Amino acid sequence: MKYNFKNCTLEDEEFLFELKKQNFKIYVEEIWGGDDKDQKKRLEDDLKEHLSHKKIIMINDKKVRCICYSYNRK
Description:
By secondary structure, the protein is of the alpha+beta class.
């Protein structure tokens, strides 16, 4: 298997949305309800602020997961 990372772009929004639904659906519904339109808006806002901190994990050139990182320089 070939593993690599790809910088996240706005074109990855649908992949990220589906990934979020698969992993956090029960929590999101409990806290915010099941409104996909609202959740897509939340994701758009998050991407505007944190896009440079996200990487897509690729296996054999297929998107499989996302990681988000940040660090503080002190």
